[in-house]
């Protein structure tokens, strides 16, 4: 997931920006463990080897930077041999500071914890064979970024070399190359599947791997964010991106858009954002009070907040304000990762913006069950004996110390608010046989769909390259696979994507 960028650090960052980072500093890791298993669906069965192990991340001088934990699922024949003609997909979540458990046991792995709409999943829920697993299309290697999960940072490694956009991508490129070499899979079609900040990682990896002679066949971007400008304080791109998502949530809660198809309603909101709201925000206090009220009335019809409230905020509504107000009459707060989820409102004493941003019913409902199922699988079925603590989300220690500086391709200076859509465009121009799938949800307020559409449209790709990009928008939130109908639709769309030449 992408954590809230406005949340302050929870440790004394001025004295030591890596205080309490806590990623293990030893290269001692558990022995690899594996098991032969079978995935079955109504129409198909696949024998596969599941293997938990670590990959050495070694720099060009031969120095060990860390050991990256991997959980790989590789289809095998009756003799236990892999098929090099099958694609290999490297998959991960984001944060920065998140492990790969959500995308694995939440949605795309061969085992999945079943969900129940927007209800909380029982903590002791078990994982069952996943009918929509990516294993049906490809062997899959789930990777935990250094400093997360069971991945460890080597003694003597400066965290600043790893905890940042470019250092992180470099570490993943090295780990991916290690896996390909160790498993003899250089001739296999290669894919990346990243979610949330994982799409930032994907974008840089698309370019970086190509520069290192590792050509990709395809890349999947789920719940993407490309241009970091949109999260900067006071940036109008933030408010523009949020508006269609607010409108979708307002309709879901029965406060707007009555009788309109949800996709059509979202399209209307996208059109309003670009045709009405964007010009109004651009003019600032030059808009004039009369026109500002006209826009506020139209905006209110979409997102259901009072006109006077919108005027008081000059049409710019922060996510925390929307989340706490949209269901205030019911004493509830809606989710951020998936705005359809909600929970009891917070105590009046809990006024910290960071606290409110982190309290998310959409996350609380599922992640604990996923981690328990993952731990049970590794321990009980693979016999893997990892450390007692698994850092499923280490944002407080990794993400808050993250370096957002990025060496933009073709630019003379590093950007502190990077736009990795540039990396995507460069990678596609260099490798026009690569295909790209961009997937997102209407109710995702963490990585809003409008912004991704805007970011890619500003790359001015040729019609041929634009034809290599497929778009899929679903009735879901950030972790799209939580939603069963979306997961089924994604399964069909990903099948078509992997089959596309």
UniProtKB/TrEMBL annotation:
A molecular-function term among this protein's GO annotations: serine-type carboxypeptidase activity
Annotated InterPro entries: AB_hydrolase_fold, Peptidase_S10
Domain of life according to the entry: Bacteria
First and last residue of the signal peptide: none
GO biological process, one term: proteolysis
Residue ranges, annotated region (Disordered): 1-30
Record's protein name: Peptidase S10
Organism, scientific name: Thermophilibacter immobilis
